[in-house]
Automatic annotation (TrEMBL):
One of its GO terms (molecular function) is ferric iron binding. The keyword Plastid does not apply. This is Ferritin. Keywords: Iron, Iron storage, Metal-binding, Oxidoreductase. PROSITE patterns: FERRITIN_LIKE (PS50905). Pfam families: Ferritin (PF00210).
Amino acid sequence: MHRKRAPHLEKGDPLQLRRTSTLECFKLSVIAANLDHMTDETKFHALLRDQVRSEFTASQQYTAIAVWLDDQDLPQLAAHFYAQALEERNHAMSMVQYMLDNDLQATIPGIDAVKNDFSSVEDVVSLALTQEKQVTEQITTLARTARDEGDYLGEQFMQWFLKEQVEEVASMTTLLTIVRRAGDDLFHIEDFVARELAKGEPADATAPAVAGGRV
């Protein structure tokens, strides 16, 4: 008994050509979609992606500060900066969530080098204040760029961070003033942090969502 052979498609067969043509069209459409995604990249998106790196770097710097303070037996100050480290990490992941929500390429970058050696508590807090001022400049540039590019969603997203930075700079400025007034009286600094900073801020219902959840 002979099995019935399947019809043989010769070279140039219309059915085979149609299949090949369909596959090639699909490949081209995928390439075109990827190119469209790349060309949609704006200056704001590039700056936001770079800001993720800055926020993670700030988080790591605050961790280094907290560890140094822990080693100096200053538990209140250490706890404050451990909390600051988590806050900066949440800022970074909020930006990641924004990129995910808006179909932007979200990547987790490496971070810049951080400082681990300090000469005094004043040295520590001075660095922290400088860092907050730098972040404020970066956030301001992001908001301005979003407005210039007509990216109203991006501009609105950055408004919360602008408000946050006003509070962060003010808080760190006050802490530096207290540290300078206290001089060598580290107990006075610890007491101030315990009374004024350890209680933390109430939950902010307007805070942007955080990828993976807030920590």
